[in-house]
Amino acid sequence: MPFPQTRLRRLRATGALRGLVRETRLDAGDFIYPMFIAHGSDRREPIDAMPGIDRLSIAHAVDEAGEAGALGIPAVLLFGLPAAKDEEGSGAWDDEGVVQLATRAIKQAHPDLLVVADLCLCEYTSHGHCGVVRPDGRVDNDATLELLARTACSQARAGADIIAPSDMMDGRVAAIRAALDDDGHHDTPILAYSAKFASAFYGPFREAADSAPAFGDRRSYQMDPANADEAIREARLDVEEGADLVMVKPALPYLDLIRRIKDDTAMPLVAYNVSGEYAMVKAAAAAGYLDERSAVLESLTGIRRAGADIVITYHAKEAARWLR
Ligand code: PBG
What we know:
The chain has helices at 15-20, 58-70, 98-109, 141-157, 172-182, 203-209, 229-241, 255-265, 275-286, 292-306, 316-323, and strands at 31-38, 44-46, 54-56, 75-81, 114-119, 132-133, 139-140, 162-165, 191-196, 245-249, 269-273, 310-313. By secondary structure, the chain is of the alpha/beta class. It has one domain (23-323): TIM Barrel, CATH 3.20.20. Strands 1, 2, 3, 4, 5, 8, 9, 10, 11 and 12 form a ten-stranded mixed sheet that branches. A two-stranded antiparallel ribbon has the order 6-7. Strand 4, helix 3 (98-109) and strand 5 (114-119) form a beta-alpha-beta unit. Helix 2 crosses helix 3 (98-109), helix 4 (141-157) crosses helix 5 and helix 7 packs across helix 8. The longest helix has 17 residues, at 141-157. Residues 118, 120, 122, 130, 166, 202, 205-206, 274-275 line the site of ligand PBG.
């Protein structure tokens, strides 16, 4: 029945009616809060391009993780900023490395909070690439797998609840699954950064983690932003290799893939609302160009509406407060 009998505005008339028919709800329980763990003690250093996000030494990270938990956020994602970097990235699989120490400390203080360990070498390598660099400058896929597997086991031994490989090497999920199983960690899930694009929106993160590649770029392993079918193939392969959750990253420029991969795989779908997406909103809000709270909640709702079950976001704590 067309207008005038049909009037879609009827259900928009009051807050109660709009709430009744709302299709997507935001909940702190769907957020993961990323944190940067610095070596040393008593450090809390602001990150210029990410107002509100600091590099934290372990004791501060334990406090902040506790705050996130108290706000109803079920999980934190840890990135490590080691004291020293080398060619191989050996700090990544050091049982006493920053992420391992922080994982133990957070799990001890907040046993119910989930710790997700980001698994990548780029924060630990002197050249800033996510894998082993060969003499000709290329990133060696297969040689990297062994180092990733070693790192995953070290993270799981430290008590990480979920291992999240973000390197985009081929075959890493299978290699990590096999290594975790061999080491007795059959029950540790893998959250695969399945469709991770070579994105300009990682800029602030690379400043925060001091992980910009010293030469070249990441386009030989991260995906071309122009490709969608290939992202489906990436996600399917990760599922075949044993991924328990799949991720699309960044989130806002890739909402189509959040939907397509969710529909295609029926897996728990995680979207990463990355550092550049955060920085844009923060900068525009600081300049008075948009209302931060509405812009953040609208963006997070859009990501969930597109098909994400879980959103990794630097806005998590603020959004959780607004949603109370
Ligand atoms: C490591 C990694 C990156 C991000 C998450 N894991 C940076 C990169 O690939 O260069 C980016 C996260 C963000 O921008 O918030 N490989």
